[in-house]
Amino acid sequence: MQSARAPLVTPATRSLHRFSADDHRCRIVAVLSPFELAHFFPDGLGEAASAHGLPEIILRPVPEKNTEPWAWGEFLEQERPDVLIGGWDMPGLPAPDEEGRGGCQAIPKQLWPGYVCFLTGTLRKKIPRCWIEQGLLVSNWGDSISRTVAESALMLILGALRCVAANQHNLHQDGGWKLPHRPEQSLFGRRVGFHGFGRVAQALTRLLQPFGVSLRTFAPGTPESAFFEYDVHTCATIEELFSSSDVLVELAPLNDHTQGIVGRELLELLPEGAVFVNTGRGQVVREAELLEVALARRLRVALDVFETEPLPADSPLRAHPEILLMPHQGGPTLDRCRDAGDFALRQVAAWLRGETPSAIITLPVWDMSS
């Protein structure tokens, strides 16, 4: 099945060895479903590779929503990929058992690819921690989706202010017309706060510019230069951020410090009637307390992420039609998955040139993933 090829370049030598774009010793293998192929590379995988000056990318198709385990050792022995491209439907690399046996140790390191370029975001279910710990180079879609997540956050802000969820329920389920007292509000001139100031928050600042809002953030560890570049006021404490924001957008990374950090104490600092949007990580927020405070202080809430996903059918959040809910779809719309596909191939081209790709999944990044 496999044609003759040049001697294997092992992971140890790959760290020093790179290929030119037309070097056919480089073997790039993509493990993709038809769905992924159609949306990440809508012009075709060959066209995409050629546009980035890459050698042929060998496609090994998998079923959509694939859950079948693979004999990864046999696959890697047969394919010998220098670069492996995967996504949502790629079978997960083997994980260790409860005694720590198996996992990455089950496959000789000389068979490992030099680089795994993951097309999508969170990959914990696809690449167990031991692979990263033992030196496998992996990247994900990085900030290629930041603008579309920011677009979704803007939609949630406007939807909450304009009472879209309540209006839709009133029109569709209750047979009503206008809500009493016209509760809709405008975004113009509001004080908008970001808990966290990464790429999504930075992209969102640009989308908010036409609304004449004032921006503030609490984001420990973020370089001061970022605040200056985006003209964002930095709050000395998280309490100051919550108490001074008409609109609070939750975008903090998930780690030991931020797990469950947003609860009653902070939420009660929001001005009455304020907007609370979460497009970051669901487990940063204590949902039960959010619901209690939202009802008591008439907060306008819009959520795209949750403590438990999928959102349980009996979640109390579902019982309140004025709360705007989305099913964790703040990432790229299908028509913009091509941005992540383009980003991925640029990273592969960089790796071939001997450069370090962007969006590398380090152990801290893996640990913060959901």
What's the short story on this structure?
The protein has 370 residues and is an alpha/beta fold. It has 14 helices and twelve strands.
Task: Tell me about this structure.
- With 370 residues, this protein is an alpha/beta fold.
- It folds into 2 domains: 166 residues, Rossmann fold; 181 residues, NAD(P)-binding Rossmann-like Domain (Rossmann fold).
- 31% of the residues lie in helices and 12% in strands.
- The strands form 2 sheets. It has a 7-stranded parallel beta sheet with strand order 8-7-6-9-10-11-12. A 5-stranded parallel beta sheet has the order 2-1-3-4-5, with helices on one face.
- α12 links the parallel β10 and β11.
- The two termini are 38 Å apart.
- The N terminus is likely disordered.
- GO terms for molecular function: glyoxylate reductase (NADPH) activity; hydroxypyruvate reductase [NAD(P)H] activity; NAD binding.
- Keywords: NAD, Oxidoreductase.
- It holds the Pfam family 2-Hacid_dh_C.
- It comes from Termitidicoccus mucosus.
Write the layout of secondary structure elements.
Blueprint: H1 11-14, E1 28-31, H2 34-40, H3 45-51, E2 57-59, H4 72-79, E3 83-86, E4 115-118, H5 129-133, E5 138-139, H6 146-161, H7 164-172, E6 191-195, H8 199-208, E7 214-218, H9 224-229, E8 233-234, H10 238-243, E9 247-250, H11 264-267, E10 275-278, H12 287-297, E11 300-303, E12 324-325, H13 337-352, H14 363-368
Parallel strand pairs: 1-2, 1-3, 3-4, 4-5, 6-7, 6-9, 7-8, 9-10, 10-11, 11-12
Helix pairs in contact: 6-8
Rg over alpha carbons: 23 Å
CATH superfamily of the largest domain: NAD(P)-binding Rossmann-like Domain
Instruction: Name the beta content range.
Output: 5-15%
The percent of residues in helical segments reads 25-40%
The CATH architecture of the largest domain: 3-Layer(aba) Sandwich
- Poorly predicted ranges: 1-17
GO molecular function: glyoxylate reductase (NADPH) activity; hydroxypyruvate reductase [NAD(P)H] activity; NAD binding
Keywords: NAD, Oxidoreductase
Protein name: D-isomer specific 2-hydroxyacid dehydrogenase NAD-binding domain-containing protein
GO cellular component, one term: cytosol
